[in-house]
Amino acid sequence: MTRRYRMMLFLVSAGCLGVLMAMAFLAMPGFGQKSHFYRDHAVAASVKHVTANVVESVTFDQRGLDTLGEEVILLVSVVGAAALLRPSKEEDEKRKLQPGRVLEGTRLMGYLMLAVTMLIGMDVVIHGHLTPGGGFQGGVILATGIHLVYLAGNYPALERLRPEHVFEVGEAVGAAAFAILAMAGMIVAGAFLANVIPQGDSSAFGHLLSAGTVPLLNVLVGLEVASSFIVLLAAFFKQALAIRGGASPQGTVDRGGDR
Amino acid sequence: MTGGGDVVIALALTLVALAGTTVIMTDAPERQAVTLSVFGVLLSLLFLVLQAPDVALSEIGVGAAIVPLLVMLTIRTMRGGR
Lengths: 259, 82
Known about the structure:
- The complex is a heterodimer of chains A (259) and B (82).
- With 259 residues, chain A is mostly helical.
- Helices cover 65% and strands 2% of the residues of chain A.
- Chain A has helices spanning 3-27, 37-48, 54-62, 64-85, 104-126, 135-145, 148-151, 155-161, 164-189, 213-242; strands at residues 91-92, 244-245.
- Chain A has a two-stranded antiparallel sheet with strand order 1-2.
- In chain A, helix 3 (54-62) packs across helix 10 (213-242).
- Chain A is globular and about 60 Å long.
- Mean pLDDT of chain A is 82; it is low at 246-259.
- Chain B is built from 3 helices and no strands.
- With 82 residues, chain B is mainly α.
- In chain B, helix 1 (3-25) packs antiparallel against helix 2 (29-49) and helix 2 (29-49) packs antiparallel against helix 3 (53-79).
- The longest helix of chain B is centred in the last third of the chain and has 27 residues, at 53-79.
- Chains A and B meet through helix 6, helix 10 and strand 2 of A and helix 3 of B.
């Protein structure tokens, strides 16, 4: 395929895509208009199941199957990435790392923010059915927050703080328990992912104990997402910091350097 | 829609467009990781303005923190004595 032919192919396809997108945009409902068919039904269904956060009601109750699918996608991608990134035979994993040299202020802020971020992450997971957030968002906050220990200059402490095998199990348990809860809906109520736990009456609206399976699924997704990202980042960190290829070990460029 | 809300949305959209262009125009991948992170923060601001705080939280975690971190670690692995 010559360069000229490739260019023509690209221009034709880009033109077709442009026309299709213009047609789609023109047929879309106006921006910020008053009538919302989907909202009217989703909010009613959400209130019926005593779930204050309508987005959560949609993602974990009304369309829980999509969330299960997304969770499996994340699980499979992390397993794939971890398999590709595992140390090969000629790579030396035993390199000992010393705590890096960072400014005292950076170290202090790192540990301070670690505590704050962990609290925020757990809060976002636990209150997912009440306020914006949920298992995915909270899980991501927890997984990134733990790496503040590395920013504070202490990679060895980070390795002790997140034993990989524990989070590999956490990842699997989170995903499996989600599927089991979904099957429980099938057995008890005859529908996959049916909200089989009592949601409480209207007086429970906005309280921690409401929305039935939604907060439970949130915690499971939080466990799965946090574990997945920790395992993924651990594989990347190991490749970047702890592994040296046998051939030509050069001096590493460490953060901080001489004061 | 009130006029004030429209102005805020237009402002957030403009910021996202500017930041996106900056990411593309940045040459070195390690600098791109930083501009990408700023882009992620501005994009989550846009989601917040458009009343989608759940999506904004996801974007700030994945787009502004995890993806730039993975890019940085990958660059370090590729350049570091191998």
